[in-house]
Structure formats: structure tokens, C-alpha cells
């Protein structure tokens, strides 16, 4: 029966589907000339995977429902935020840099970049799958802790995105760095709360024999990616290209990730 499909098979079925979706998004990017839609597609793919896992994974109903609620609200909020950014602003500088870097191989490079994002979507959906496969049917303290993590993370990320958007809309913002609100205490508060959000699925997975997979493919892997690969390094390289010494000064005085009081100049 579909409802008792083994989690590994769900991942195997989901992988080609997400790869095909990302191939379609790549084709759309060719037409729109804005590779930023890959971020929008990534968030929506994760929401879709959460729906599939909630419907087909063999776990108890309660952790499934919480996982689905958390993942869908998170996915849709992020998708709306990214859609507005894509609609109102030119292509993100990181992707413009890649276009220049790849040159004549631009679209080949983007095709495989989009396919890599499909792979990341599958990997980062594993915490959803483990939570949806949890056999514990009771409302436990772990579920209560998951709600706390999710509420704090969603609120913090929403505030950080709003504060940055408000700053960018000011006529004097060009060439300057946002140091207002949460951005006074962390150079990447949106990334910090994004990372915090993945602990909610770890809590929902407690009770499953492989709950630790949710920890490794959620908070641990997200931390590595944000610090070493797709997050902070690329974002800060682009910030230095566009804001120069103003951003270098920001780096000297402000915590990179974990919110903390600014250092003296």
C-alpha cells in the first residue's frame, strides 16, 4: 500500500521528479534571464516533498501533521519573499557574477547548477521524511520544543527579511550596508534563523530509530553549507564587490552568524 512505502523508496522516487522540475525551471531562466528563480523553485520543491512524505511515509499522524504545517508555512513564506525580490529587483549579483565567470558556457553551467539544487532539495528533505516516518503517536515534550524552535525561527527570519527589504527601499541605501535591527547583531540573521528552523524537524523525529539523520542532514549540513559553500562566502564576496570598504568595516565589527553585540571599531 502507498501509505506503507519505505522511506528509502520515497527518496528514490522523488529524486527524478525534482530533477525534471529543476530542468524546467532552468529553461524558464533562459527565457527570463534571471537565475534567481532557482531559489524560489528550491523552496517550493521542499514544500512539495513535505506534502508527498506526509501522504506516503509510514509514521504516526501527529508528527506528520506538525512536519507538514512547519514545512509548508516555511516554504510558502520564503517563496513569497523570493518572488517579491525577483519581481522588484534586478538579478542577484551572485548570479550575474556566475554569468560573467562562465562566459560562453553560461547556460551549461546554470543547467548543472540547477540540477545541483535539485540534489540539495532531496538531501535537505530528509529531516521531513524522518519526522514523517516517526512511529510515536503521542504529543511529547519534543513536539512542544519543535513548536518553540519553529516559531522563534520563523519570526526571526521574517523580521530579518523585512528589515533588510525596508533598508534597501531607502533612496540612500545604494552602496551602504544595513546595520539596523537584527542586522546590527549578525551579518546574516536570516541565515541564522533559517538554520535554527531545521532543529524543529530534529525534535519531531525523536522516537524514530534514525532520528539522528534529521540532525545530520538538517542543522549540521545546513551549517556547513552556510559557512563554507552556498551561503556566507558567496554572499559576502558579492557584498564586498558592491559595497567595498563599508562592508569590510561591517565584517570587522559584526558577528558573522550567531547574533552578538557589535565590536568596537
TrEMBL record:
- This protein's source sits in the domain of life called Bacteria
- Tell me, what's a Pfam family for it? DUF1295
**InterPro entries annotated for this entry?**
UstE-like
Keyword annotations for this protein, in alphabetical order, are: Membrane, Transmembrane, Transmembrane helix
**Any stretches that span the bilayer, and where are they?**
6-28, 40-59, 65-84, 109-130, 142-160, 213-234
Which Gene3D superfamilies would you find in this protein's record? 1.20.120.1630
- Output a single Gene Ontology CC term carried by this record: membrane
Could you confirm whether the keyword Transport appears in this record? no
Protein name per the record:
Steroid 5-alpha reductase family enzyme
Native organism: Methylohalomonas lacus
Q: What is the lineage of its organism?
A: Bacteria, Pseudomonadati, Pseudomonadota, Gammaproteobacteria, Methylohalomonadales
